[in-house]
Structure formats: structure tokens, C-alpha cells
User: Fold this.
Amino acid sequence: MLDLTPKGEYERTALRINPCKTCQPVGAMYAALGVHGCMPYSHGSQGCASYHRTFLSRHFKEPAIAATSSFTEGASVFGGGSNLRTGARNVFDVYNPEIIAVHTTCLSETIGDDMNAYIQDLDIPEGKHVIHTNTPSYVGSHINGYFNMMSGFIRYLSAKSEIHNGRVAVFPGFVNPGDMREIRRMAKAMKTPITLFPDTSGVMDAPMTGHFAMYPQGGTPLGDVIGLGDCMKTIALGELTSEEPAIELERKCGVDYDLLPLPIGIDATDRFLMTLAKSFNRDVPYELEEERGQLVDVMLDAHFYLVGKRVAIFGDPDTVIGLTAFALELGLVPAYVLTGTPGERFDRRVKKLLAAAGVDEETVRVKSSGDLFELHQWMMDAPVDLMIGTSYGKQIAKALDVPFVRAGFPILDRYAHPYFPIVGYRGALRLFEQIANAVMDRQDRDCADEDLEVVM
Ligand code: SF4
Assistant:
């Protein structure tokens, strides 16, 4: 397995090997699926749309609906305006969505299709909507596509009226439906009304009913997307994912925002709940205090198995920042922290976390715009005790025989994970269990027979 990966590394700028990201439209499609009654629409070739849908379906094990402009040679030469006109008409006629959310692709971006002009030219049925965002895949990653699509919804739809709606808008970051459910559950326990946008719960974790529903029950209602402009404030979770749409909402409707990390681990969850509590002048209920106390209890119980273990963490930037913060809370020592999404802000944020925990940043390799080939090379040079990240680390874990905890996006080789949160105290408890089990399983496997513990 991966026998040809050479030891030592050299600087690569024009080549990614085993990338730690995917293309912008995947994120745009996922954000669009988080709005009820929305048909994501890929303005490009059928191959792109197939890839984006397949990528999402393999992670969520759910159908990811989407339409496409189906570019052929003609559109590549003359532009995709007529394809979009025909495509949008067909989608409204055949699939009857409330809204079509168009994202571009490499091809339509390279042609330079003027999406604003095309959409103004469309014959949109009464009461229906078409919005768009630009998602050139040679820039950024699926994370950029996700926040660009959120900004597209806000730019086209969100409006401010005379009165506040008494809610706080919460932008959840690029997380699973299980995380979105957990954020809503915590807000409900706090008795703090929120508009979660987008919300893929009930869409990408919809139940089996025996009947296919093109538009499952979940998703942020369109009225709530419009009503974002009337929210008291925005809590933007995930500093690198959610700030752009929060800025867009502030610019368009004057809604202030608080920028917080994804609530992964104790401190980040505390900050989220305290921000909610302050926004509504509420106390944190005992139900959540109890969950926090239980988490601290198990962390203390098992800390001696984890303290000092070296860990490699990789995946999407905000998820990796959250996992790194939680790893530090557990006493793990981050050795390698890597994301494929570009942005030096990631490096700064991780180094700040390390400094706050008293870890010498010179001992940790932190990298944005990285790939898993170089992570493998780093690990060949100086091994780790544990890997935490996406399914694409699986071959490295096997090649180097390292315990591996799957977290983040995508996880292609496991089932049910999108239902379980990693955010909040409950999410951290589950992460803790996975991490501790992986380390303890390794200890059991490697120890002498007489040292095999039954009662820990
Ligand atoms: S051509 Fe571009 S948009 Fe299409 S799948 Fe490839 S990277 Fe994504």
C-alpha cells in the first residue's frame, strides 16, 4: 500500500497528489440542498453534475438531486445562455421546485457566462425564484462553494422589513445533518429561537418512507431565508466558512454578526451557548450543564490513555480547527494539522490554538493548501499514534499501521455517520469515545498477553 511514496519532501506548487479537498460546486450543491424545495442546478456539463451528485451521495448515502445545463460543444463555443433557459423551463415544468439555485462550473466560468444577465432574461413562473453563485473550481475548494452559495441566497432573497423577527440566524458551517440537528436541539433546550441556514437535516438524512419525495420535509424554509434580514443578529459558526455570508447579510440588511469556531469540544461549545444565552438574556439549562459535566467526567476518567499521544488531523479547515482544539483539551499532541483548502488564516488560527495550549508551534507542522501525499511523507519521517480525518487518509493509516478515527467530509467507507453529531457536548462525547477506543484497541492489540486489561 502506497509503497512508492518517497521519504523526504520537496516543495510542490503546481501539483496536488491525493488532495484534501474537492471542487467548489460540491459545496454549492450541498448548501442548496439545505433549503426546502430547492433544486440545485449545475451550469456546465453533465459530467460535472454527475461528479458533484455522486460525491455527496457517497458521503450521505442519500440521493442528491440536481439538474444541469448539459453543455456540449455548442455551449462551450457560444456560451450557455440558451441551455440555461431551456434547462430552467424544463426543471420548473417537470420537477416544480420553489427555487432553482444555479452554480457555475469550470467550463462556464472559463467561457465567462454572464449569469446575472442570463437569469434576468429567464421566464420565471409567478412565486418561484432562480438565484445563482459563481463557483470556479480552480479557486478554493468545496468550502468556498458552500459559502458562496449561502451568500447567493442572501444576495438574491434576504430582505429587511420594519420589525425584528425575534430570532438569531445561525450559520452552521459545513457540517453533517446530524450536527445541524444538534445545533437546533441545543438552541431549543436554551429556549432561544433560531433560523438555521442552511439546514440539510431532513434532506440528506431523510427517513425511508417507501415513497420517493423529490423535496423531503427538511431544509430551511424559503420564507426563513428571506427573513434572515429581520434576525436580531447572526451567529456564524466556522470562521473560515461562515464569515462571508455573515458579511453579506450585514451588508445587505444591517444584521450584526458574532464569529465563532465550530462548536467542537468544550470551549467552543461553551462559547456558542454563552453567545446564545447573552443574545436572549437566558441561562444555560441544567440539561446542557449535565451533558457538559458528563463529558468532563469521561475525559478525566480516561485521560492517561490519551495524554501525550501524537495525532495527525486533516480535512476541512473549520472542522480541523475544531478537532485540533478538542485534541488539545484531551491532552493529545497535534503533530500534523493540514487542510487542502487554501488560506493562511487557517495556519494563524491553528497556531493561536497551539500557543494558548502552551504547545511550541515549531514542533507542529501546520499547513493549508496541503495534500495527503505530503502528510504521508511527514508521517514517514516522524510517526504519529493516531490519525483523525476523512476517508482519504485510509490508505496512509493502513500503510503505516496507524489507528484511524474518521471525522469530517467526506467519509465514504462507513455508514450512519451523518446522523451523529460531532458538535456540542454530545458530539464531543461521541468523538471522545471513538478516539479513546482507537487508542485502547491499539494497546490491546500490541500488548503482551499478560498485560491485556479487562477492567480499565
Ligand atoms: S470540471 Fe471543474 S466543476 Fe466540473 S467536476 Fe471538474 S473541477 Fe468540478
